[in-house]
Structure formats: C-alpha cells, structure tokens
C-alpha cells in the first residue's frame, strides 16, 4: 500500500502534467490563419474550458491531499487556474499565430469554476 506521502506526490505530479499540457497547448504556434468567427466562439474556447476544468480539479485534489480544508483547496485551485489563464494570455502575445483573447480567459474561468464546483460536490 503506498504511503500517504507517495500519494500526495503523485497528485502533485498530475497537477504539473495537466498544467504543462495546458500551457504548451495554449502556446504552440498556430500554422493556420485566424478565422474572424473564432474570436468569440472558436474551438479553442472549448479547449480552454476543458483544460481548466482538468487543471482546477487536479489542483484542488492535490491541495486537499496535503491536508488543506476543502473550501480553501477549492479557492486555491480556482485562483491557481485563473492565474495560469492570465499567464497564458500574456505569453500568447509573443507566439506567432496566437493572440490573447478575453474570450479565452472567460472560458478558462468558467472551466475553473465548474471544475472546482464538481470537485467540491464529489468530496461531500
């Protein structure tokens, strides 16, 4: 049976993995021309939403595994996920074919909120 410390380490490795996938996926240079209709409702909004759901859930789970109370774990995960979204938006301005968009941030915030809400409900 793995120790509690090994389990917590595995959870933080999951946070790192999901965070790196989200960051790299958001910063890969786009070889395609931008389609104006995608500014508000493009497929990337769905990817930001899903990525932040996954990141917020894994982050809240890791905080909780370290003994943090659930409301604080959820709040920390929400803040951490939103901060990652802000960092991605900032860094995208330096990547060819990428443009920081407010709609991406909104999708990430909504995904973070849903992820934390779902995680919190599953721990009750």
From TrEMBL:
The lineage of its organism: Archaea, Methanobacteriati, Methanobacteriota, Stenosarchaea group, Halobacteria. Keywords: Membrane, Transmembrane, Transmembrane helix. The keyword Membrane applies. The chain crosses the membrane at residues 12-32, 72-91. It comes from the Archaea. It comes from Haloarcula salinisoli. This is VanZ family protein.
